[in-house]
Amino acid sequence: MPEGPEIRRAADRIAKVVAGRVIEHVEFGLPRLQEFEGMLSGLRVTDLETRGKALLTHFDNDLTLYSHNQLYGRWYVVKRDRMPKTNRSLRVALHTATHSAVLYSASDIEVLTADELITHKFLSRIGPDILSKDLVPQRVVEQLEHAKFQGRKLAHLYLDQGFLAGVGNYLRSEILFEARVNPNLRPKDLSPAQRMALGEATLDISKRAYKTAGITNDLERVALLKEQGVKRSQFRHHVFARQGRPCYECGTKVTKVDLSGRRLYYCAMCQGVPA
């Protein structure tokens, strides 16, 4: 599933061809949304916004197209009338005079009024966006210290969109490694220094993933590994998807565990064994 950085990068690509432009024709592949085609066609896109893993396309009549890629959704940006060659099911197509932004395979799509946007079942309950310009490490610390989050293991907490919006599987493992905290610990088990380390790692890793199209490893190390001919799948992350391979920091083999069907990776030496 695409995580916050991937959705933000998709929004950037889409914005280049639709932001501030008139959408000559809107097309929906889901019958329940086809009544909105006439309402949105001919309108101008005023802004594209991401909130965690959700993408919001705002139109100049105060309607907003909400989309969540879920596991299989994918946005493409193409020249007008040059649709992608794919077996995926078309869900949304936004056609300007020169380009098209098209979404395939996703099903969590809605057209919302301003009031519906405020009360939306997903948007109204998510926590701070990991890529928000207003998010600072101390705000993450405040979330960690909140009573409803203090007793939960970090391994589970960091996938809760109500805690922080935009974190998924790979970011979870990488943030916890960067902060050098064990995934079995709870916020209430952490020292103030560890909570601040988590706050800083959350921002640093999320921003790095956004800027580099998903790379979370140390960038100087990445450059060196590239020169050595190491494949992207192995230099991309510190620990994620590197089970059984030596930790780049200490040489200990990276551990993989499955928690509720989701993969988590960590270094037992660097991240310690919880008391």
UniProtKB/TrEMBL annotation:
Entry keyword annotation includes Aminoacyl-tRNA synthetase: no
Keyword DNA damage on entry: yes
Alphabetical GO biological process terms: base-excision repair
Family: Belongs to the FPG family.
Swiss-Prot/TrEMBL keywords: DNA damage, DNA repair, DNA-binding, Endonuclease, Glycosidase, Hydrolase, Lyase, Metal-binding, Multifunctional enzyme, Nuclease, Zinc, Zinc-finger
Record's protein name: DNA-(apurinic or apyrimidinic site) lyase
Organism for this UniProt entry: Aequoribacter fuscus
EC numbers on record: 4.2.99.18
PROSITE patterns: FPG_CAT, ZF_FPG_2
GO MF annotations in UniProt: class I DNA-(apurinic or apyrimidinic site) endonuclease activity; damaged DNA binding; oxidized pyrimidine nucleobase lesion DNA N-glycosylase activity; zinc ion binding
InterPro entries named in the record: EcNei-like_N, FPG_cat, FPG_N, H2TH_FPG, Ribosomal_uS13-like_H2TH, Znf_DNA_glyclase/AP_lyase
